[in-house]
Amino acid sequence: MGAVLAAVLAASLAGCSSTGGKRAEERAAQAAEGRSAVNTPRWTFAMVTHSGDGDTFWDIVQKGAKQAAVKDNINFLYSHSDEGQQQAELVQTAIDKKVDGLIVSLAKPDSMKTVVAKAVKAGIPVITVNSGSAESKAFGALTHIGQDESIAGEAVGDELNERKRKKVLCVLHEQGNVGHEQRCAGAKKTFDGTMQNLYVDGTNMPDVQASIEAKLDSDQDIDAVVTLGAPFAAAAVKAKQTAGSKAEIDTFDLNASVATGLQNKTLGFAVDQQPYLQGYEAVDLLWLYRYNQNVLGGGLPVLTGPQVITSKDADALAEYTNRGTR
Known about the structure:
This protein is α/β, with parallel strands linked by helices. The protein is 51% helix and 17% strand. It has helices at 2-12, 18-32, 56-71, 84-96, 109-121, 133-136, 149-162, 178-190, 205-218, 230-243, 256-263, 275-292, 311-322; strands spanning 44-49, 75-80, 101-104, 126-129, 144-147, 167-172, 194-199, 224-227, 248-252, 270-272, 302-305, 307-309. The two termini are 13 Å apart.
């Protein structure tokens, strides 16, 4: 990543003075060696998300955030809970530590509203990431970084139409997550066929597989299954095989396993929202705000997706999914 950064900076500054170009190269070299590329104070930023344990999506978000933190001389703290009240308590802990910036996801906004307001009142700049684009501005955040979940869902509905699917199962693995509801609702809005929601316990992968298998076994007319996270796509593939179904398996989000599935065509398509970019930009935009009072978005979310990825795209992304940044 450092080498790429150095190359990009060198190319973009080719027309600048030799002094400016040299300074840019020196900054890139420092970041590549794990040293800050800036001389601003060592601020502390905390990120608190709704991730459960072992979620590969949030591992990628963290990689982006940590890379930006190195570059920006940031002390980066990360914590998570998939329970709304516990996530709010973690945010309160960050407030008590008097962090210099806060990044939060709002998958369960009702649980987070009060504590985010406390952070804003305490003078801590807040950026929301991934979930909560509709609530972000009202809660007092500077901006939201992620994809519009309804638009992403609509893109899935359009893609299913292109593939001439008629009966689809949308698998929701976290009850109460407003973003998940928006994804399935968006897909249902643009899909010309029929779509049914299936709620599963995302913390119990055998249960996820069994629930999908039972549904496919009882209804052989289902010709597509859409999962809302990369880890659940593999469970859906196994369920399809056991049930003897011909349904296409599609998913939101991308990781190395999904890229492989696209390459060997056990998966039809994936919807990428670039989690690495969400983490990186959240830290970088907080730094810009602290340093220069910059805000992006103009009151609207800064979108990182959706991008529909198919087998023809998988080879080009394999390098990045294998290193855990896509």
